[in-house]
Amino acid sequence: MSWTVSRDAVTALKPIRLGDEAKDIEYTKNQIILPAVKSQLTGEGDKLNSTIAERTVIKTEQLVLLAGFEDGGYLLVTLNEAQPEDSVHFSLSSFLVPYLAQDLINEHALVEAPAIVSKASSSSNASSSLLDVIVSTHAGTHLALEFYDSVLQPFLAAIGLNESDDHEQTATPEEQGRIYRVLKTQDANSVKDFARKRWGSQSGLSTASSSSSSSAKETVILLSGDGGVVDLLNGIESTSASLNPSSQRPTIALIPLGTGNALFHSMHKPHYTASSSSPPSSLTISLRALLKGRSVPLPTFTASFSPGAHLVHGAETESQEVSHLVGAIVTSYGFHAQLVWESDTPAYRKFGAQRFGMVAQELLKELHKYDASVTISSPSASSSTSASVSSSSKQMQKRVVIGTSSATSPLLNYALVTLVSNLEKTFTISPASKPLDGALRLVYFEGKTGEEALSIMMGAYDGGKHVDAAGVEYRQASDAADDEGGGEVELVTRETDPRWRKVCIDGTIVELPEGGTMKVIRNEEPRLDVIFLAA
């Protein structure tokens, strides 16, 4: 038994319709072979145009929707992705077939209404939609808007969800319940401003939540990279979101259109390694997750800075100080932070993820050694080498682990604290990390030449083998099961040149003052949920 899509929703896709030709459909574990057909649904009632299609091979890893059809049979929708140099990067193909192999139905069919359809339907009017779409127009290589127009909008329409027209006042309550609103970002503050207005402490619960059932949850589909996630997190004041029960905590659904997409790739890494056959693309997984994923808490950390720290955008340092940032991915100092900052220019961003390798080559020619120290603090006496302290006091005890800045100690090259396994799809920075396990892990090394550092970092592209390299320290800094939040990682920089005082928090760059500190600790209370699709 499969969930059924309506005729009105399907006609917008203009799917190829198979009649008697369907008896010749071939199906294997990895592909569906459709015979040539002579008819196409145009959306004009039962009127059919005569056309001839070539024999079509559908790879199952491209399949994003298989559902029942109101008039009988099944709807197949696939995602097509072109090469970066092509003018059109994304498209959907769709087919109506009277019957399919039962094995295919069992494995891929949508058996119940997607959660996002239920959420949108529970809203009573368009102005209080429980479903929003944020299109981060400048994320990555600027493909989010194209993906929305070519793929996501018709995909959502196929399951009965349509973009709100703010000028439309005649929609019935039922029609309004199937409407979502779209924000297309205008500047670097658009996502953060959305979160502040929607969930900030000054506004309390959002309009949507307060006007609907107390058990209703808002969902935001985010077409962005990791920066969009950190902007949402930091737009939410802890005094509002952390006090919301899980039934009202906002949910984000990620469509990975940034450069590294570390959070998405780390969450869904098992999909890439689950079988020997070609895995689905990250964008295919993201669309499947909208239909079949489940909402789970997103682990986060807080990075706190000493007075005098400032945000940095490109070459510009903001005048307003920043005291802390919330993250879900990584915070770093040294080579990684330097790489992220110095590659964040229009000249480099057009190269996508390749920009990191380009800048890395320049930085490695003469690898800087940072005058800094890193300590790990434990909230319990059992995990510290210092004098014992009662666990009820929650006093942190410190143990220096790197960068003492003494005449006999080498200086720091790389210090990174992460909640995720991968910073890119193929770059495994923390091989012990599991999807959403909530454990902070520390990776660092010191006293290396550029050639040695390059060799270490190449190990991250080989499944995370860098952690076994000589001189690399890799350890857990906090435990998700620790009721007190686990350990705290503290960095102190003594660099005099501002160039070498940059830290990175989920892609956001902060400049510390001379002698400044950054403290990182895992948050006990989640601020957001995230849609996760198990492999």
UniProtKB/TrEMBL annotation:
Residues 187-307 form the DAGKc domain. Keywords: Kinase, Transferase. It holds the Pfam family DAGK_cat. GO terms for cellular component: cytoplasm; membrane. GO terms for biological process: sphingosine biosynthetic process. It comes from the Eukaryota. One of its GO terms (molecular function) is lipid kinase activity. PANTHER family: DAGKC DOMAIN-CONTAINING PROTEIN (PTHR12358:SF108), SPHINGOSINE KINASE (PTHR12358). This is ATP-NAD kinase-like domain-containing protein.
